[in-house]
Amino acid sequence: MVSGSEEDLIRGCIAALNSGDVAGYLAGFSPDALRWVDGLDTPLTLSDVRESLSQMVMAFDRLHLQEDLLFGCSGHACARWTLRGVHTGVYGGIAPTHREIDVQTCEVYAVVGDRITESRVYGDALGVFTQLSGDR
């Protein structure tokens, strides 16, 4: 694997997501990839991730996943992200609050060839909901 290719793959996925293209984001993942989220007992499938991200794209204006740190080699990558946006639509049953979110996470990726085969997300899994409720 060429040095830097893990980072390039992930940056390409994030660029698609930041433009509102959930399918483009998911194109970088293997169809059977699982996303393990700290605090959840079972992993998310790509279908779960697609549904969640589609809802977020519709419910948040200026939704943007900012790269705070990204490095990788030998088939793995690690990234620290800050998710920002303004809540302008219904999300998770919560009516628009027009509050800004600012949620930090860390994600570790396994990469085989040109696809992400697994990811593990660490951080406050309920951070978005806590911020929408005004309890931050």
Features:
alpha+beta, Ester cyclase, 5 strands, NTF2-like_dom_sf, Nuclear Transport Factor 2, Chain: A, Cyclase_SnoaL-like, single chain, 136 residues, 4 helices
Task: Note down, in words, how this protein is organized.
The protein is an alpha+beta fold. The chain has a single domain (5-132), classed as Nuclear Transport Factor 2, Chain: A. Helix content is 29%, strand content 42%. The chain contains four helices and five strands. It has a five-stranded mixed β-sheet with strand order 1-5-4-3-2. β2 and β3 form a beta hairpin. The termini are far apart. The mean pLDDT is 94. This is Ester cyclase. It holds the Pfam family SnoaL.
How many structurally independent domains? 1
- CATH topology description: Nuclear Transport Factor 2, Chain: A
Name the quaternary structure. Answer: single chain
Query: What is the number of strand segments?
Result: 5
Computed structural class? alpha+beta
- Poorly predicted runs: none
Instruction: Bin the helical content.
Output: 25-40%
Question: What is the N-to-C succession of helices and strands?
Answer: HHEHEEEEH
Organism: Nocardia jiangxiensis
InterPro entries: Cyclase_SnoaL-like, NTF2-like_dom_sf
Protein name: Ester cyclase
